[in-house]
Design goal:
The protein is of the alpha+beta class. It contains 13 helices and 12 strands. Strands 7-8-12-11 form a 4-stranded antiparallel β-sheet. The chain has a 3-stranded mixed β-sheet with strand order 1-3-2. A 3-stranded antiparallel β-sheet has the order 6-9-10. The structure holds zinc ion. The site of zinc ion (ZN) has 4 residues, from helix 7 and helix 9.
Protein backbone atom coordinates (compact mmCIF):
# COMPACT_ATOMS: atom_id res chain seq x y z
CA UNK A 1 0.00 0.00 0.00
CA UNK A 2 2.78 2.41 0.91
CA UNK A 3 4.58 1.47 -2.27
CA UNK A 4 1.51 2.12 -4.38
CA UNK A 5 1.08 5.47 -2.75
CA UNK A 6 4.72 6.36 -3.33
CA UNK A 7 4.51 5.43 -6.99
CA UNK A 8 1.42 7.49 -7.55
CA UNK A 9 2.99 10.35 -5.70
CA UNK A 10 6.22 10.25 -7.70
CA UNK A 11 4.38 9.95 -11.01
CA UNK A 12 2.16 12.85 -10.12
CA UNK A 13 5.10 14.92 -9.06
CA UNK A 14 6.71 14.36 -12.44
CA UNK A 15 3.64 15.15 -14.47
CA UNK A 16 1.92 17.91 -12.59
CA UNK A 17 3.02 20.33 -9.97
CA UNK A 18 -0.39 21.32 -8.72
CA UNK A 19 -2.66 18.49 -7.64
CA UNK A 20 -6.24 18.99 -8.70
CA UNK A 21 -9.08 18.22 -6.35
CA UNK A 22 -9.90 14.97 -8.17
CA UNK A 23 -6.22 13.88 -8.14
CA UNK A 24 -6.20 14.31 -4.38
CA UNK A 25 -9.52 12.52 -3.98
CA UNK A 26 -8.24 9.59 -6.05
CA UNK A 27 -5.05 9.30 -4.04
CA UNK A 28 -6.90 9.35 -0.74
CA UNK A 29 -9.44 6.78 -1.96
CA UNK A 30 -6.68 4.49 -3.22
CA UNK A 31 -4.98 4.58 0.14
CA UNK A 32 -8.09 3.65 2.11
CA UNK A 33 -7.89 -0.04 1.34
CA UNK A 34 -8.57 -1.17 4.87
CA UNK A 35 -11.23 -3.79 5.40
CA UNK A 36 -14.41 -2.72 7.06
CA UNK A 37 -14.70 0.51 5.13
CA UNK A 38 -17.36 0.33 2.47
CA UNK A 39 -16.93 1.95 -0.91
CA UNK A 40 -19.53 4.57 -0.16
CA UNK A 41 -17.81 5.43 3.15
CA UNK A 42 -14.46 5.68 1.35
CA UNK A 43 -15.99 8.19 -1.01
CA UNK A 44 -17.36 10.27 1.85
CA UNK A 45 -14.08 10.10 3.77
CA UNK A 46 -11.90 11.15 0.87
CA UNK A 47 -14.38 13.85 -0.12
CA UNK A 48 -14.38 15.25 3.42
CA UNK A 49 -10.59 15.13 3.71
CA UNK A 50 -10.13 16.95 0.43
CA UNK A 51 -12.81 19.59 1.07
CA UNK A 52 -11.60 20.32 4.62
CA UNK A 53 -8.04 20.33 3.31
CA UNK A 54 -9.01 22.80 0.61
CA UNK A 55 -10.50 25.13 3.23
CA UNK A 56 -7.22 25.01 5.15
CA UNK A 57 -5.22 25.63 1.99
CA UNK A 58 -7.41 28.61 1.20
CA UNK A 59 -6.89 29.92 4.72
CA UNK A 60 -3.08 29.70 4.42
CA UNK A 61 -2.97 31.13 0.91
CA UNK A 62 -4.97 34.12 2.16
CA UNK A 63 -2.64 34.37 5.14
CA UNK A 64 0.44 34.42 2.91
CA UNK A 65 -1.24 37.05 0.70
CA UNK A 66 -1.72 39.39 3.66
CA UNK A 67 0.66 42.38 3.43
CA UNK A 68 1.45 42.00 7.16
CA UNK A 69 2.69 38.46 6.50
CA UNK A 70 4.52 39.43 3.33
CA UNK A 71 6.44 42.06 5.29
CA UNK A 72 7.83 39.32 7.50
CA UNK A 73 9.72 37.61 4.67
CA UNK A 74 13.43 38.09 4.16
CA UNK A 75 13.20 37.20 0.53
CA UNK A 76 9.92 38.24 -1.09
CA UNK A 77 10.34 35.58 -3.82
CA UNK A 78 9.74 32.98 -1.16
CA UNK A 79 6.11 34.08 -0.81
CA UNK A 80 5.17 32.73 -4.22
CA UNK A 81 7.20 29.65 -3.38
CA UNK A 82 5.10 29.01 -0.29
CA UNK A 83 1.87 29.81 -2.09
CA UNK A 84 2.60 27.33 -4.86
CA UNK A 85 3.76 24.74 -2.33
CA UNK A 86 0.46 24.75 -0.38
CA UNK A 87 -1.72 23.23 -3.17
CA UNK A 88 0.72 20.31 -3.56
CA UNK A 89 0.04 19.03 -0.03
CA UNK A 90 -1.67 15.62 0.02
CA UNK A 91 -3.15 13.30 2.64
CA UNK A 92 -2.51 9.75 3.76
CA UNK A 93 -5.15 8.17 5.97
CA UNK A 94 -4.31 5.51 8.55
CA UNK A 95 -6.25 3.57 11.15
CA UNK A 96 -5.02 3.47 14.72
CA UNK A 97 -7.40 2.52 17.48
CA UNK A 98 -7.14 3.89 21.04
CA UNK A 99 -4.58 6.41 19.95
CA UNK A 100 -4.16 10.01 21.01
CA UNK A 101 -2.74 10.67 17.58
CA UNK A 102 -5.18 12.49 15.29
CA UNK A 103 -2.61 13.23 12.65
CA UNK A 104 1.08 13.70 12.11
CA UNK A 105 3.67 14.74 9.54
CA UNK A 106 7.27 13.74 8.96
CA UNK A 107 10.01 15.97 7.67
CA UNK A 108 11.05 13.18 5.27
CA UNK A 109 7.60 13.36 3.58
CA UNK A 110 7.28 17.13 3.35
CA UNK A 111 4.00 17.13 1.39
CA UNK A 112 2.01 14.49 3.26
CA UNK A 113 -0.41 14.84 6.14
CA UNK A 114 -1.16 11.52 7.85
CA UNK A 115 -4.69 11.38 9.26
CA UNK A 116 -6.08 8.86 11.75
CA UNK A 117 -9.54 7.94 10.44
CA UNK A 118 -10.36 6.23 13.75
CA UNK A 119 -10.20 9.53 15.62
CA UNK A 120 -11.39 11.91 12.96
CA UNK A 121 -14.54 10.21 11.74
CA UNK A 122 -17.54 8.83 13.50
CA UNK A 123 -20.20 6.43 12.34
CA UNK A 124 -23.78 7.02 13.37
CA UNK A 125 -25.91 4.16 12.08
CA UNK A 126 -25.02 4.02 8.42
CA UNK A 127 -23.76 7.53 8.20
CA UNK A 128 -20.06 8.31 8.43
CA UNK A 129 -19.07 11.91 9.10
CA UNK A 130 -16.17 13.95 10.50
CA UNK A 131 -16.16 14.31 14.30
CA UNK A 132 -17.08 17.96 14.79
CA UNK A 133 -14.35 20.23 13.52
CA UNK A 134 -11.55 17.86 14.51
CA UNK A 135 -10.69 16.91 10.92
CA UNK A 136 -10.40 20.54 9.89
CA UNK A 137 -8.52 21.49 13.08
CA UNK A 138 -6.07 18.62 12.62
CA UNK A 139 -5.37 19.39 8.97
CA UNK A 140 -4.87 23.09 9.77
CA UNK A 141 -2.38 22.19 12.52
CA UNK A 142 -0.44 19.61 10.50
CA UNK A 143 -0.41 21.86 7.43
CA UNK A 144 1.15 24.50 9.68
CA UNK A 145 4.01 22.06 10.37
CA UNK A 146 4.57 21.37 6.66
CA UNK A 147 4.59 25.09 5.92
CA UNK A 148 7.03 25.58 8.79
CA UNK A 149 9.37 22.90 7.32
CA UNK A 150 9.09 24.51 3.89
CA UNK A 151 9.89 27.94 5.32
CA UNK A 152 12.96 26.44 6.95
CA UNK A 153 14.18 24.88 3.67
CA UNK A 154 13.77 28.33 2.10
CA UNK A 155 15.87 29.72 4.94
CA UNK A 156 13.00 31.81 6.18
CA UNK A 157 12.76 31.88 9.93
CA UNK A 158 9.33 30.58 10.89
CA UNK A 159 9.23 31.79 14.47
CA UNK A 160 11.71 33.90 16.39
CA UNK A 161 10.18 34.82 19.73
CA UNK A 162 8.40 32.10 21.60
CA UNK A 163 9.62 32.27 25.17
CA UNK A 164 7.13 31.07 27.76
CA UNK A 165 7.20 31.23 31.54
CA UNK A 166 8.35 27.79 32.53
CA UNK A 167 11.24 25.52 31.78
CA UNK A 168 10.04 22.09 30.73
CA UNK A 169 10.67 19.29 33.19
CA UNK A 170 9.55 16.28 31.15
CA UNK A 171 8.44 15.11 27.70
CA UNK A 172 4.89 16.40 28.13
CA UNK A 173 6.19 19.82 29.15
CA UNK A 174 8.50 19.79 26.14
CA UNK A 175 5.51 19.19 23.91
CA UNK A 176 3.75 22.22 25.38
CA UNK A 177 6.90 24.33 25.08
CA UNK A 178 8.08 23.21 21.61
CA UNK A 179 8.62 26.00 19.06
CA UNK A 180 7.50 23.76 16.23
CA UNK A 181 4.20 23.09 18.00
CA UNK A 182 3.87 26.75 18.96
CA UNK A 183 4.13 27.73 15.30
CA UNK A 184 1.32 25.34 14.32
CA UNK A 185 -0.82 26.36 17.32
CA UNK A 186 -0.45 30.04 16.52
CA UNK A 187 -1.98 29.31 13.12
CA UNK A 188 -5.00 27.79 14.87
CA UNK A 189 -5.32 30.75 17.25
CA UNK A 190 -5.17 33.21 14.37
CA UNK A 191 -7.65 31.31 12.32
CA UNK A 192 -10.15 30.72 15.08
CA UNK A 193 -10.11 34.27 16.47
CA UNK A 194 -9.62 35.95 13.08
CA UNK A 195 -6.39 37.62 14.25
CA UNK A 196 -4.19 39.77 12.08
CA UNK A 197 -0.62 38.51 11.60
CA UNK A 198 0.59 41.46 13.70
CA UNK A 199 -2.10 41.40 16.41
CA UNK A 200 -0.58 42.29 19.78
CA UNK A 201 -1.52 41.29 23.32
CA UNK A 202 -4.42 43.71 23.78
CA UNK A 203 -5.78 42.90 20.30
CA UNK A 204 -5.82 39.22 21.28
CA UNK A 205 -7.40 40.02 24.64
CA UNK A 206 -10.17 42.06 22.94
CA UNK A 207 -10.88 39.17 20.57
CA UNK A 208 -10.97 36.69 23.42
CA UNK A 209 -13.36 38.85 25.43
CA UNK A 210 -15.57 39.28 22.37
CA UNK A 211 -15.65 35.49 21.93
CA UNK A 212 -16.32 34.89 25.63
CA UNK A 213 -19.18 37.42 25.64
CA UNK A 214 -20.82 35.91 22.57
CA UNK A 215 -20.37 32.47 24.18
CA UNK A 216 -18.29 31.19 21.29
CA UNK A 217 -15.63 30.49 23.90
CA UNK A 218 -16.78 28.43 26.82
CA UNK A 219 -14.61 28.15 29.91
CA UNK A 220 -16.75 26.52 32.58
CA UNK A 221 -16.47 27.18 36.33
CA UNK A 222 -13.82 29.82 35.82
CA UNK A 223 -13.94 33.48 36.76
CA UNK A 224 -12.23 35.73 34.23
CA UNK A 225 -10.71 39.10 35.14
CA UNK A 226 -8.62 41.75 33.42
CA UNK A 227 -5.74 43.71 34.87
CA UNK A 228 -6.32 47.46 34.54
CA UNK A 229 -2.59 48.20 34.69
CA UNK A 230 -1.86 45.87 31.80
CA UNK A 231 -4.34 45.45 28.97
CA UNK A 232 -2.66 42.29 27.72
CA UNK A 233 -3.29 40.31 30.90
CA UNK A 234 -6.20 38.02 31.68
CA UNK A 235 -6.54 36.30 35.03
CA UNK A 236 -8.50 33.16 35.76
CA UNK A 237 -9.66 31.81 39.08
CA UNK A 238 -11.11 28.36 39.49
CA UNK A 239 -12.67 26.55 42.39
CA UNK A 240 -10.07 23.80 42.58
CA UNK A 241 -6.77 25.54 42.91
CA UNK A 242 -4.29 24.66 40.18
CA UNK A 243 -0.69 23.93 40.94
CA UNK A 244 2.41 22.92 39.09
CA UNK A 245 3.79 23.89 35.76
CA UNK A 246 3.14 23.48 32.10
CA UNK A 247 1.20 20.25 31.87
CA UNK A 248 -0.90 21.22 34.88
CA UNK A 249 -1.64 24.49 33.17
CA UNK A 250 -2.50 22.63 30.01
CA UNK A 251 -4.93 20.56 32.07
CA UNK A 252 -6.32 23.76 33.59
CA UNK A 253 -7.09 25.13 30.13
CA UNK A 254 -8.35 21.85 28.76
CA UNK A 255 -11.95 22.66 29.76
CA UNK A 256 -11.84 25.58 27.37
CA UNK A 257 -14.02 25.10 24.32
CA UNK A 258 -14.59 27.14 21.21
CA UNK A 259 -17.90 26.62 19.47
CA UNK A 260 -18.45 23.65 21.77
CA UNK A 261 -15.29 21.87 20.60
CA UNK A 262 -12.17 21.27 22.68
CA UNK A 263 -9.15 23.14 21.39
CA UNK A 264 -5.95 21.44 22.61
CA UNK A 265 -3.90 23.75 20.39
CA UNK A 266 -5.26 26.83 22.11
CA UNK A 267 -5.14 25.36 25.62
CA UNK A 268 -1.47 24.36 25.10
CA UNK A 269 -0.65 27.85 23.83
CA UNK A 270 -2.36 29.48 26.80
CA UNK A 271 -0.53 27.12 29.17
CA UNK A 272 2.81 28.10 27.74
CA UNK A 273 2.16 31.79 28.34
CA UNK A 274 0.58 31.46 31.76
CA UNK A 275 1.82 31.45 35.30
CA UNK A 276 0.24 30.65 38.60
CA UNK A 277 0.31 33.11 41.47
CA UNK A 278 -1.69 32.40 44.57
CA UNK A 279 -5.21 31.66 43.51
CA UNK A 280 -4.90 33.05 40.00
CA UNK A 281 -3.70 31.73 36.70
CA UNK A 282 -2.37 34.69 34.75
CA UNK A 283 -2.34 34.53 30.97
CA UNK A 284 0.11 36.98 29.44
CA UNK A 285 -1.30 37.82 26.04
CA UNK A 286 1.51 40.33 25.51
CA UNK A 287 3.90 37.39 25.22
CA UNK A 288 1.47 35.60 22.96
CA UNK A 289 1.18 38.77 20.87
CA UNK A 290 4.96 38.85 20.48
CA UNK A 291 4.91 35.27 19.27
CA UNK A 292 2.13 36.07 16.84
CA UNK A 293 4.06 39.00 15.44
CA UNK A 294 7.21 36.90 15.16
CA UNK A 295 5.54 33.94 13.40
CA UNK A 296 6.26 33.84 10.39
CA UNK A 297 9.09 35.32 11.40
CA UNK A 298 10.71 38.69 11.96
CA UNK A 299 14.43 38.58 12.17
ZN1 LIG B 1 1.99 19.29 16.05
Amino acid sequence: MGFLFLRIFINMKKKIIKLTESDLRNIVTKIINEQGISDSDKKIISGQIVSNGNKCKEYYINHFSNPETIDKFNNKNNISNIKSFIPTIGYKPFLEKNSGKNGYVKQTFPKTINLNLNNLFTKNGNTISPKGTLLYDTILHEMGHLIDFKLQTLREKSISSSTGYHSPTDGQDNYVQSDVETFARIQRLREILGLNPNANGSDIRDKLIEFIKSKKIQFPNIKIMGDNRNSGILMFAERNKTKGVLTDLWRFYSSLKINNTSVPDISALFAKYSKINNEFVTLDLNLLGKVNVSAKGNI
